[in-house]
Design a protein that fits this description.
Helices cover 36% and strands 17% of the residues. The chain has helices at residues 55-64, 91-104, 117-128, 148-152, 166-169, 175-180, 184-194, 205-216, 220-229, 231-241, 263-270, 289-292, 294-306, 329-332, and strands spanning 2-9, 14-19, 24-28, 69-74, 110-115, 133-139, 251-256, 277-282, 337-344. Helix 1 links the parallel strand 3 (24-28) and strand 4 (69-74). It is an alpha/beta fold. The chain has a nine-stranded mixed sheet with strand order 1-9-2-4-3-5-6-7-8, sandwiched between helices.
Length: 345
C-alpha cells in the first residue's frame, strides 16, 4: 500500500483514506490523538510494523487488507484539521463534520469504529443518523450522562497522580492550557503512561514528538481541552437521544483489560446505549488499544462486521485520484480546506 495525498474542500474538515472499492468503515479517533500521520523515513512501507503507531495507523491497514474501505478523518481541532470556526467541540458538532465527509463521498451506509473521545462523536453521529450507521464499535470511553464518566472525574480519597484527575482538570475553561503551555511533552508523557498497560513501552519517542508538535500549534492545545469542557452539553444530548431511544443497530463495546475491567464496567457504561450490545475486553492493553494490541482489536472488529447478514454496498472512491476538489471558494476564506491522505491497495 502506498500513501498518497488528496485535498478535499468541505466547510471544516479533512480526512485520511485507505481507498479501494469495498464496504466503507469510518474510524473516529480520540483526544489528544489524530488520524493523519507524519511519516518517518521508510516506515510506511511496512504496514502494521510502523515505528510510529497511531490508533488507526495500526488498525486501519488490517481492516483495509480484509476488504474494507477505511476512512479515518482528523476531528476538528485535531491533527491537521483546522480549528472549529464556531469554537464548538461538542460531540454533536464534531459528528456533523463526519456526516459532511460521508455525504461528500456519497456514502449512505457505513460501519463505525471509535475510540476515546471519538466514541462520543460516533455515538452522536449514530443517534442522529440511525439509517446511515449499520454497526458501531465503542472503545474505551463511557458516554457523559452515563454516570460512569461523572464518577470517574469526581475526586476521591484513593486518587493518586495516576488516577483520572485530568477529566476534572481539563474540564475547567482556560486553566489547563495556562498550566501546560510549554510543557506539552511532559503532559503527554504522563497522559500515555498513566493509562497504558505497561507504561510508555508501546509509545516511541518519535510518536511522542509527533503528538507534541500537533498540540503545540496555535490553538490546538485549547481545542483538545474544549472536548472535555463540552461534557455537559454532550450529557444533555445523549440523555435526550440515546437514553430514551436506545440504538437499534448492533453495538460492540470494548475496553482494555488494564483500563475497563471487569466486563461489568462496560455493561454499566453501555447497557442503556443499545438494544443489542456485545462486550469484550482487549487483552494486554490499557487505554491505548491501537498501540498495545492492534491486531487483536482489528480481528475482533472484523468478526463483528462479518456477523452482519446484510452486507453494506461497496463504494468506489477511485475517482478522487484525478478529481478537482478545491473550487474557487477556497480563496474566499469562508470554507476551510482540509488535507486528506490515503493508502491505496
Amino acid at each position: 500500500m502506498a500513501l498518497k495525498k488528496v485535498r478535499m474542500l468541505l466547510w471544516s474538515f479533512f480526512g485520511l483514506l485507505w481507498l479501494c472499492c469495498r464496504p466503507p468503515v469510518l474510524l473516529v479517533h480520540g483526544v489528544p490523538e489524530h488520524s493523519v500521520r507524519e511519516l518517518l523515513p521508510n516506515s510506511w512501507f511496512h504496514i502494521g510494523l510502523l515505528t510510529e503507531q497511531y490508533t488507526w495507523n495500526t488498525i486501519g491497514p488490517i481492516l483495509a487488507s480484509n476488504n474494507y474501505t477505511v476512512i479515518a478523518p482528523d476531528n476538528r481541532g485535531c491533527g491537521d484539521s483546522s480549528l472549529a470556526h464556531d469554537d464548538d467541540y461538542s460531540a454533536e458538532a464534531a459528528s456533523a463534520d463526519l456526516k459532511g465527509v460521508l455525504d461528500f463521498l456519497n456514502i449512505t451506509s457505513v460501519y463505525v469504529v471509535s475510540h476515546d473521545k471519538g466514541v462520543g462523536v460516533a455515538a452522536a453521529l449514530t443517534a442522529n443518523h440511525r439509517d446511515l450507521v449499520k454497526r458501531v464499535t465503542f472503545i474505551e470511553y463511557p458516554l457523559p450522562g452515563s454516570g460512569v464518566y461523572e464518577a470517574a472525574q469526581t475526586p476521591s480519597p484513593g486518587w493518586t497522580a495516576y488516577s483520572n484527575w485530568q477529566l476534572a482538570f481539563f474540564a475547567v475553561p482556560d486553566v489547563p492550557e495556562f498550566f501546560l503551555q510549554g510543557r506539552e511533552k511532559e503532559y503527554l508523557t504522563w497522559y500515555y503512561y498513566h493509562a497504558g498497560y505497561a507504561g510508555n513501552s508501546a509509545l516511541s519517542e518519535d510518536l511522542l514528538d509527533i503528538y507534541t508538535r500537533a498540540v503545540q500549534k496555535p490553538g490546538f492545545l485549547r481545542s483538545a481541552f474544549k472536548y472535555f469542557q463540552s461534557e455537559w452539553e454532550d450529557a444533555r444530548f445523549f440523555n435526550e437521544t440515546i437514553r430514551p431511544r436506545p440504538l437499534e443497530m448492533p453495538v460492540l463495546a470494548m475496553g482494555g483489560e488494564a483500563s475497563q475491567s471487569p466486563i461489568s464496567v462496560l455493561e454499566q457504561s453501555f447497557g442503556y446505549v443499545g438494544k443489542n450490545v456485545q462486550y469484550d475486553l482487549v487483552p494486554k492493553a490499557g487505554h491505548w488499544i491501537g498501540d498495545e494490541n492492534p491486531e487483536w482489536v482489528a480481528q475482533r472488529v472484523l468478526r463483528f462486521f462479518r456477523e452482519d447478514q446484510g452486507r453494506i454496498p461497496d463504494i468506489d472512491l477511485s475517482g478522487l485520484t484525478d478529481r478537482v476538489t478545491l473550487p474557487q471558494q477556497l480563496a474566499m476564506g469562508n470554507i476551510l480546506a482540509r488535507r486528506t491522505r490515503r493508502w491505496q491497495a
